[in-house]
Amino acid sequence: MAEAEHGSSPLAEALSRVGDRWTLLVVEALLPEPRRFNDLLSQIPGIAANILSDRLKRLERDGLLVARPYSQRPPRAAYQLTAEGTELAGALRLLAHWGSRHTDQADSPRHLACGTPIEVRWYCPTCDQLVDHEQDHAQLHFV
Q1: Is the Cβ–Cβ distance between 124 and 131 less than 8 Å?
Q2: What is the 3-state secondary structure (H, E, C) of 51-98?
Q3: Strand extents, DSSP E, the chain
Q4: 51-100: per-residue pLDDT in tens?
Q5: I want to staple 8 with a disulfide (CB 3.0 to 4.6 A). Which of 12, 47, 55, 85 is the partner?
Q6: Angle of CA points 93, 13, 69, to nearest 5°
Q7: Across-strand partners of 123?
Q8: Beta bridge partners of 77
């Protein structure tokens, strides 16, 4: 991905860092726990080893993951998300929620207690109000 241009929007900045299919899938695979290269390779269907290597290097360079060596000969590492990388979990949930609404509803995230598909809402903690259904959307700033 090209580097973000000066003065770009927050969305453009995010996309310049993680805006390709493979990067987001690597982050998703690392959310539960650190993983080794071959574990990631087998967990992400269709990704080539050179693409995975490139994405891991880029994520490390951008401070979204750290590589923790576990072998010197041959050099091998386990990959773990940093706190900043883990923050992407919310964005991934939103994308997955959107994707489930436009594909198979059986894959929608569900409330464990009753099985109902959950919904995403924007909330203002200062006002203690939901803001995603306000009539004047001009005052909402999403990006």
Answers
A1: yes
A2: HHHHHHHHHHHCCCEEEEEEECCCCEEEEEECHHHHCHHHHHHHHHHH
A3: 35-36, 65-71, 76-81, 123-124, 129-130
A4: 999 999 999 999 999 999 998 888 899 999 999 999 999 888 888 877 87
A5: 12
A6: 70
A7: 130
A8: 69
